[in-house]
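[09:14] KT: can someone run the structure on this one? pasting the chain below
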Amino acid sequence: MKFTDKYIANLKPKDKMYQLREGDGFGIRVLPSGFKVWVFTYTFDGKRRQMNLGSYPDKSLADARTDYSAAYSILHDKANPRDPQEERDQKHNTARQKREEYRLAFTVSDLITEYIEKHAKPTKRSWYEDERILNKDALTVWGNRKATDIKKRDVVLLLESIIERGSPGSANNNFKIIRKMFRFAVQRDIIEHSPCDGVVMPAPLNRGDRVLSESEIKTLWNKLDTCQASSAIRSAIRLILVTGQRPGEVIGMHTDEIDGKWWTIPAERSKNKRAHRVYLTGTALELIGELKVFDPKTETMKPKGFIFPCTNLKKIQAMARLSISQVVSRNLAVPVLVNDKPVFDADGKPVTENKLGVADFTPHDLRRTAATLMSQIGFMDEIIDALLNHTKQGIIRTYNLNRYDKEKQQALEAWERKLNSIITATESNVIPIKRKAA
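[09:31] RB: done, structure tokens below
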């Protein structure tokens, strides 16, 4: 009997297991459950044996014949006939031993590299943030240690050391990334169990409620002109406040995304993977600047490309997302120098100057500030959520497909008038919108 794909597919189960052979030991076993298994039946050293070649349909007829032919060749090798089952078992044991040796030799440094290359880079736009966090603490403390040697206690001590240096938020961020990395290691069989299992978030989660006051907005807007930052970074910081969009989406803006007075953030760049349209007010367009630049090679005007390009001219890309955060953080505490030497206070701590003139904040707080003040003007949460590109919740996500372009434009224009009145310290000409009317 010569097996065919159709014949094998049509084999029906019976009350008892039965087996059919094609010839020379190659056959298939059909169980009462309907499960089908390819087999090679043979005799070696006077003992009858049956070798499992895989299940159908996971392994096709053609692939099963290939495995059978390889096993048959080993059994009937004229120079050195061998038991194909034992040879396969030996290969599996050798492969298993190599995997175990590889696992035991894997250091945390190796794990960080593999996590970044195999997981973070392919799946996260902000992979470089994972790399920065892991390199700063986990790599420094655990780098040369075996990944299998890291225990729960090691994780707890590392997180506590970060909290003790006054960085509870950093401890939480470290824990999130370290936990993800060790889960990745379990999935790839580098370790058997994650040392993060049972470890709780090291510091209370701060949902973020920083909203700049109107006086702070005015101070920040004016102080940006004299702080330690490039003109591009200053414009990007202001643009976050003007548009209410995420810092990472603003810093990655490209001329291809701008059409007249509308900026479309593509799905691949938005947090919720959905394209998002943002109306550009006059202030926003002024901050963005010219969309075309002169090309001396062709002596023609060409699209600028990235609005906030990387300072390394060899790289055709936007600035790093962290550029804004780093500039803000640095300007909130600039070391005071006298004769190019740092000044220290009575406690031996360096004396710093706040170049931005407002209390500690992050670029994302500017987005929250814009949303809060638009709410105070009178715009409904539904409009603000649409402007912020928040994902709709519940049944409305399925049935309400309105993108609120008209309402978003109205909100941003009203916010621009309010912002201008704050910056110039003149009486606002914004007419509050009644909730009912909205």
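[09:33] KT: thanks! The chain has three domains: 5-102, 108-187, 219-424.
[09:34] RB: yep, looked fine to me
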